[in-house]
User: Which sequence fits this backbone?
């Protein structure tokens, strides 16, 4: 069974969402993610630009590209649910399947706030269901929810059946994850697998590696084949390889490299 493959926005950023859509289509992707809520200073704030929203909607309709996920909200005790709903309204209009979320940074995350965070997570999960979408929560070694177990714990506590886990290969291994950890997950716990590669030994700066120094599958030493064998055969995949060293390449070339490396791994 061929996994459906999506192009993560981070692979091509910084670029406009329209450029991302064009590159994804030219590289042969049938599915893509879009970042509409800024995460980095170079990101376009799509939600603040109605004209750009209209252009994106038109381009998606014209190309027939599936929008797999919309990025990215930070789940926190004080999150504005009205702003989240505005993102969901736009995402639903694009036919998006998932809203992507992370937790606060490690510095801003307070364990004593977790009960309120869990409550907000459940509320956002149910709000997302109202738009026939799912909420996918990503853990990262440098955020408050650091590990697979952390993500699974807060999702279970939220009581929402509409929240799943984003399994990013780099974050999984850099947070100390091992393949056997996946056996503890309930069936259907995962939304997707995000693919990239990296050295076997973690660098000192995990944030820099995650945001600008990832490798394409096959260029590093992460046990990606073993990881895929441990996952459901029909779990959707996304290729997420932000790479400063390749940032001078044309967007289409980067998208094609991403597609080729991911397909070689998935089909191998």
Assistant:
């Amino acid at each position: 069974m061929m996994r459906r493959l999506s192009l993560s926005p981070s692979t091509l950023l910084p670029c406009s969402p329209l450029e991302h859509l064009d590159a994804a289509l030219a590289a042969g992707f049938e599915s893509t993610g879009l970042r509409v809520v800024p995460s980095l200073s170079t990101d376009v704030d799509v939600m603040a630009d109605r004209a750009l929203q209209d252009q994106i909607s038109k381009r998606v309709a014209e190309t027939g590209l599936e929008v797999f996920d919309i990025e990215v909200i930070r789940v926190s005790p004080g999150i504005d649910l009205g702003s989240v709903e505005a993102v969901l309204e736009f995402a639903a209009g694009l036919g998006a399947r998932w809203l992507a979320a992370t937790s606060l940074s490690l510095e801003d995350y307070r364990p004593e706030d977790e009960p309120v965070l869990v409550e907000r997570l459940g509320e956002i999960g149910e709000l997302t269901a109202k738009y026939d979408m799912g909420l996918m929560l990503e853990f990262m070694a440098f955020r408050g929810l650091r590990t697979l177990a952390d993500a699974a714990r807060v999702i279970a506590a939220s009581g929402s059946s509409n929240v799943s886990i984003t399994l990013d290969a780099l974050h999984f291994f850099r947070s100390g994850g091992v393949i056997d950890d996946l056996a503890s997950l309930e069936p259907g716990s995962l939304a997707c697998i995000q693919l990239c590669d990296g050295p076997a030994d973690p660098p000192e700066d995990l944030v820099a590696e995650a945001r600008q120094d990832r490798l394409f599958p096959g260029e590093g030493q992460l046990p990606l084949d073993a990881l895929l064998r441990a996952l459901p055969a029909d779990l959707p995949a996304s290729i997420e390889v932000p790479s400063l060293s390749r940032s001078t390449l044309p967007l289409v070339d980067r998208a094609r490299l991403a597609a080729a490396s991911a397909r070689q791994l998935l089909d191998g």
Summary: Residues 114-130 form the longest helix (17 residues). The longest strand covers residues 66-75. The mean pLDDT is 96. The radius of gyration is 17 Å.
